[in-house]
What we know:
By secondary structure, chain A is mainly β. In chain A, 0% of the residues lie in helices and 52% in strands. Chain A has strands at residues 4-6, 10-13, 19-25, 31-38, 42-49, 56-57, 64-70, 73-78, 87-94, 105-106, 110-114. In chain A, the strands form two sheets. In chain A, strands 2, 4, 5, 6, 9, 10 and 11 form a seven-stranded mixed sheet that branches. In chain B, strand 7 and strand 8 form a beta hairpin. Chain B has strands at residues 4-6, 11-14, 19-25, 33-38, 45-50, 54-58, 61-66, 71-76, 85-95, 98-103, 107-112. In chain B, strands 2, 4, 5, 9, 10 and 11 form a six-stranded mixed sheet that branches. A five-stranded antiparallel sheet of chain B has the order 1-3-8-7-6, with no helix packed on it. Chain B is mainly β. Classes of the chains: A mainly beta, B mainly beta. The interface between A and B is medium-sized, with 23 and 26 residues.
Amino acid sequence: DVKVTQSSRYLVKRTGEKVFLECVQDMDHENMFWYRQDPGLGLRLIYFSYDVKMKEKGDIPEGYSVSREKKERFSLILESASTNQTSMYLCASTRVAGPSTDTQYFGPGTRLTVL
Amino acid sequence: QKEVEQNSGPLSVPEGAIASLNCTYSDRGSQSFFWYRQYSGKSPELIMSIYSNGDKEDGRFTAQLNKASQYVSLLIRDSQPSDSATYLCAVNFFSGGYNKLIFGAGTRLAVHP
């Protein structure tokens, strides 16, 4: 079974703090994704990566950055957290290398609250 | 702006009935379509994928695709209370050299005994 894990299920941070969200997958998947999910808006793509050290902006990258130093790990960074970044953050991975429509497997999510 | 539209619901059906969930999308070039189920407080899990026009059945679930009408649906037969969840439609879009999945906002299904 594919396993995608995220470092925290719940996180509370203060405005202006630097926040790291970690995602690890154990199935040697090539592609990894970060989404945020807000009521009424569905899942929106923040960043994705098709290879180590590679990253591409998704639809809402502003205020975020990412790091992929190892194939299994994809980190989302909030350089200076703001209250409008309070959300559920979901990491996903797919097996097939490069652009594809392969099935995405999701981690359990991190509910981040910024006060 | 690529869009995937779903009725937010809630769609309420009695136990044993057929639940019909609908989704429309804006890009005629889309090739891959997915239905995810998401229980409250949990992450999405894949139920069905469909790539060709017509019906695809898997147990109590049937996905239907009509590319000409840009319409994809999910039927759940013999609905059970355990099917109560939010159902997300996802459609691939090719943009900027990459395939991306765009998700609808989801339809909340409530199956009552």
